Amino acid sequence: MIDVHFVPTPNGRKVTIMLEEVGLPYRVIPYNMLEGEHLTPEFRRINPNGRLPAIVDHEPIGDGAPFAVMESGAILLYLSEKAGGALVPPDPRGRSEAVQWLMWQMAGLGPMHGQAHHFIRYAPEGQDYGVARYGNEARRLLSVLEARLSETEYLAGDYSVADIAAWPWVGATYAIGFELDPYPATRRWMASIAERPAVKRATEAKNAANLQSRRPVLTPEQWSNLFGENMLKGSGVADPQAGSLTRTP
Ligand SMILES: N[C@@H](CCC(=O)N[C@@H](CS)C(=O)NCC(=O)O)C(=O)O
Predict the structure, then answer these.
(1) Contact at 8 Å (CB) between 132 and 176?
(2) What are φ and ψ of residue 127, in 5° steps?
(3) For a designed S-S bond to 22, which of 83, 128, 145, 163 qualifies (C-beta 3.0 to 4.6 A apart)?
(4) Which neighbouring-strand residues pair with 48?
């Protein structure tokens, strides 16, 4: 059995989609980040980085004690290996392409879109520089995706872990007000993946949380859990130079 420490965000959804695709048994352990449920020493023992998702495999590859895996991209690769190499192309070129696009998602699409979400949805109004900087970078990355998907059906030729990593992030762009009309190949790819039975099952399973609205209204406590003093304390940050953000409504 695999425990999935889960939030219904793009990074969390990658993991449940992969598990549904490969058919490994799993149990979802939902966290409410707004209430700071991930800001505990217990969770940091599972993921030293204190972020979601993470998994604990109670019957790990190679046997032995339960094994924890952090970082959604690393989780996808671990699950692929556990499932006998599923959703990673078997040939060296194909495998490298899947890893390249997975790394692109983990180092580019995810973090840059994450910052776009922060500045557009959560930051105090009027931060035009951050909105423009990350909005432009988020659009540039969508153009890179579009160019790739104009040449290949999926990111690494066949459907792979790279598509599973990128798909939920593109699906979340509605929340930052992006239209996908200028990206027809991306829309074709989005629709094709949405039709997969495993993706439908994972989407039905995702639990509801107050993370979907365009500009969520947070209480001061919730704000602090996500970005402020509580987050710093709960993450074990001891450096007095760390400045906690405040948000005036
Ligand atoms: N690179 C990490 C990113 C994880 C991450 O930032 N997760 C978010 C939710 S999607 C989180 O835990 N946020 C809580 C916080 O920032 O305190 C991954 O892909 O797993």
Answers:
(1) no
(2) -95, 70
(3) 83
(4) none
Which amino acid type is present at position 173?
T
Helix (H) / strand (E) containing 27: strand 26-30
Class assignment of domain 92-196? mainly alpha
Q: Using 50, 70 and 90 to split pLDDT, how confident is the model at 242?
A: confident
Residue nearest to atom 9 of ligand 1 (CA): 52
Ligand 1-lining residues (CB < 6 angstroms)? 7, 9, 11, 33, 38, 51-53, 71-72, 110, 226, 231
Q: Count CB atoms within 10 A of the CB of residue 7.
A: 22
Alpha-carbon distance 110 to 106, whole Å? 6
pLDDT, tens digit, 9 for 90 and up, residues 101-123? 999 999 999 999 999 999 999 89
Q: List beta partners, residue 54.
A: 5, 70
125 C-beta neighbours (distance < 10 Å), count = 10
Q: Which secondary-structure segment (H or E) carries 184? A: helix 184-194
The candidate with the shortest Cα–Cα distance to 177, out of 102, 130, 132, 117, is 117
Instruction: Return the domain boundaries, the chain.
Output: 92-196
Spatial separation of the C-alpha atoms in residues 36 and 52, rounded to whole Å: 12
Residue whose CA is at the smallest distance from ligand 1 atom 11: 51
Longest dimension (CA), the chain: 54
Write the residue with the smallest CA distance to atom 6 of ligand 1. 51
Predicted local distance difference test score (pLDDT) of residue 208: 44
CA R_g for the chain: 18
Q: Are strands 54-57 and 26-30 parallel, antiparallel or unpaired?
A: unpaired
218 CA to middle of ligand 1, Å?
18
